[in-house]
Amino acid sequence: MSLTTAQILDLAPDASSRKAGQDQAKPQKWAGLGRAGTVIWGEIKGSGASPYRTVADLAGPASKCTCPSRKFPCKHGLGLMLVDAASPLAEGEPPDWAAAWMKGRESRAAAAETRAKEPAKPVDERAQAKRRQAREDRVAAALDELDLWLRDLMRRGLAAARSEPYAFWDRMAGRLVDGQAPGLARRVRALPGLIAAAPQPGAPRPEAALGLGLGRLALLLRAARRLDALSPEQAAGVRAALGYPVTAEEMAARPDHADTWAVLAHAVEEEDRLTARSIWLVGRANGALAQVIDYGTAGSPLPPAPAAGQDFSGSLAFQPGDPPLRAVFREGRAGPAAGAALPGAGSVAAARDAFADALSRAPWLERWPVRLGSVRLGRLAAASTAAFAAGDASGSLALRAEPRLPSLLAVAAGRPVDLFGLYDGYGLQPLALVTEGRLYAMPAQGTQPVLLQVA
């Protein structure tokens, strides 16, 4: 198998790596190129006396290079995969260093499978219960402080809140972190950004955005105080929103959902000095949407994942929560996509209903993935020249104003398209588009929609 150029560039950790990888994608720069199945390798001259040795597994995708770069994949890994994408490398016997890497990957996979089958170690239930109760007490105290803070804020009014400096919000967020409620802290830290944002199409006005953010906080706080009255899945969703982690034991007990999962898009965001990569998938048979999130820090690679435009044939396990969305990969393998269709795409009215249903079950949701089928992208009537929307006979959804929007409109070219994106009740942030049997996605970096797969 080979990845497309767009899929490879979407793996780049940043824009500079994308450019540097393209600079390395010249076959004349490489020596000893070859492949064995999905694994490719080659050597390239670097700044040292010895050439850098680069190897990659396209099925991961994963790569390793002897260069000193702390980025993953490095520019040489990207360049090697791009060389193969342009013209598949010839099959051959791997050199010792590539074979050793392949064997190491197989050994680690076998060891992980063995560990998964090993009986669980005895748990000190008393110590575990003590730690759990200590956290519950700290979170309860954090909720009390947040409640008092919100009431005081409402007494003074939104106008007074808008004049507060960033330190005012950061102090409250810090107390919530100390109280082991990082999910609440993230929401509080986001509030001053809502106030400072300039009005734009597809987004609420700053004062409305602040009110929405505070309202979601209040609803989440109210739900957290009455977990006993909620269903187990609803209670789990509230705890996840507060910042409680899902344990390995809990995930081990979750059922598998087997399907051929179309990988629609990757989205990368910065969260509290961490890089968060969301992989958006949809089941070709069951039509279920899933979001797999991986976190990394500066200088540490994100784990290998199926590229946008591929299919993941295997199982996902959904974390507890209502409605279900967050998932993890279980058994399976990435490979070429079975088609470029967007499973489950429907009308604008159906998308609004799906968002309303999700909001009724978790009213603190900030956005929700929606799929639109056979919509046209165009300018909103009686609106500013910068206001665009996706619409059909049942209605329209405003599109978020962003630098990538003009390119997306150019790809659609007035034709009916299928559209996947995130909707927050005001505007839609497009992440992938299907037109005339071609899947385009908005890359993690860059502004141009890229062709990922052709039916």
TrEMBL record:
The keyword Zinc-finger applies. InterPro entries: Znf_SWIM. Residues 104-135 are annotated as: Disordered. Keywords: Metal-binding, Zinc, Zinc-finger. The keyword Coiled coil does not apply. It holds the Pfam family SWIM. Residues 52-85 form the SWIM-type domain. GO terms for molecular function: zinc ion binding. This is SWIM-type domain-containing protein.
